[in-house]
Amino acid sequence: MNCCSYYFPAKISSFNYCKSIKRKTMLKHPILSLIYIYINIYMYQIAHRGYCDLHKDNTMAAFQAAIDHNFKMIELDIVLTKDNEIIVYHDTHIGDNLVRNLNHTEIVALDADIITIEQFFTEIDHNKTSIYLDLKGDEFICIYLHKFLSNLKNIRNILIGSFNTLSLERLHGYSRLYNLGLITENTLNNDVLEYFVKKYNLAFVSFHWTALNHKSIRFLHLKSVNVFTYTCKNESIRKFMCDYDLDGIVTNYKISYEASSDESKNTLTESNSSST
Questions:
Q1: Whole-prediction pTM value?
Q2: Residue 254 DSSP code
Q3: pLDDT single digits (tens) 226-256
Q4: pLDDT at 41
Q5: CA distances (Å), 146 to each of 7, 39, 84, in order?
Q6: Which of 4, 46, 106, 125 is 20 to 30 A (C-alpha) from 70?
């Protein structure tokens, strides 16, 4: 088992136990079939930059709305400024200016809604809501992120993902307790996935929805690695995502349990028909 799974949010760990039963039994038992439906309805809905369908993304209003609408996990982007402040912002540039070339005060002058990671954690209780940090820019942000996280008493509910494997390598070197994840838009073969899982002791992999494939998901689950996908922007994408055995969906809006339930039942019926 991935040693980071102990620190991973407990709710996902319990789902994975039920999921492992489901995979082994191939959904032949009626009670386990109900578990399958339950899992797919109640997988993690991850609020993309907060509840960004209702509010400007990566703002305190969006994050508070995610709490108010009972999202159990919030995703936010972080990037490092010239004066080594970690701000909550998606891009590595503001207009024609690179964030790394601007001081925090200069950035706030350009966009007053931009907050720091300290402000976020002051307002949002990470002991009640899981937090998914998406690292942007180069790996030097890890120096200051590690300093910040070292002052928190509990990091169990904090996930850290990045496209940049240099960032993953640096954070893995700082602490083996971090819940690290690879974010990718690529379809990766199992050899490549296994390399990253072992090298960085990955707790999760987050695929762009166009890169989802059943083989990779099965492989990662066998390695006790959770699988997320991004970004659910509309019902068409949601329906595509729901064909896969996922642990979490990064979404712009609250997904209806009723719609997920209907599709889980349809998937279950198809699976049972193919096995008879």
A1: 0.84
A2: P
A3: 999 999 999 999 999 999 999 999 999 999 8
A4: 52
A5: 17, 33, 13
A6: 4
CB 242 within 8 A of CB 37: no
Q: Which CATH class is domain 3-13+46-260?
A: alpha beta
Parts of the chain with a pLDDT under 70: 1-42, 257-276
- Residue 75 to residue 159: CA distance in whole angstroms: 9
Q: Which contiguous run of DSSP H or E holds residue 228?
A: strand 226-232
Contact assessment for residue 168 and residue 141, using Cβ atoms and an 8 Å cutoff = no
The owner of tokens 């709305």 is 65
Residue type at 153 in one-letter notation: K
Residue 55 DSSP one-character state: S
Using CA atoms, how far apart are residues 115 and 118, in angstroms rounded to an integer? 8
Determine the Cα–Cα distance for residues 154 and 78; give it in Å rounded to an integer: 19
pLDDT, residue 248, reads: 96
Write the single-letter amino acid at 38. Y
DSSP string, 178-195: SEEEEEESS---HHHHHH
Q: Using DSSP, state whether 96 is helix, strand or coil.
A: coil
